Amino acid sequence: MARTQRRTYRMTLSQFQRYVRDKLRELEKCYQEVEEVRQQFDEIFKREMQAWQEVFAYCYPRVAAQRHELPAPFPEIFARTEKEERLRLQKEIADLKGEIQKGQSQMDELMAQAQSTIEKLRKANPELNEREERLKALM
Hints:
The protein is mostly helical. It has a domain at 14-105. It contains three helices and two strands; from the N terminus they run ββααα. It is flat. The N and C termini lie far apart (82 Å).
């Protein structure tokens, strides 16, 4: 028995299962439509961003060169924006350098483990080690 605000519906289990299956299909269809709209928005955003970047690439050098000729608030706005962007880029560079150092230390640690394992294997099987050395000498 299913209840809504004022009504009570009697359903068998198979009817309920069919109802749930139908609603699931409706939800999947809705999800697909939303996904299509999202993809369209992504494409529009990419086109708009590319157009904006082209205009910006054309205008910025000219505005930067003639900054002193602009009305009073604009040079300060440009200076503040450039400072914020510079700080953001410096932070991003510092974060990336930290990731590189972390990756290098992990790589060094793994290399040491691998070399240690190789040494253990060589000591455990001297005959195999001798064969490896003979093969190296032949090359």
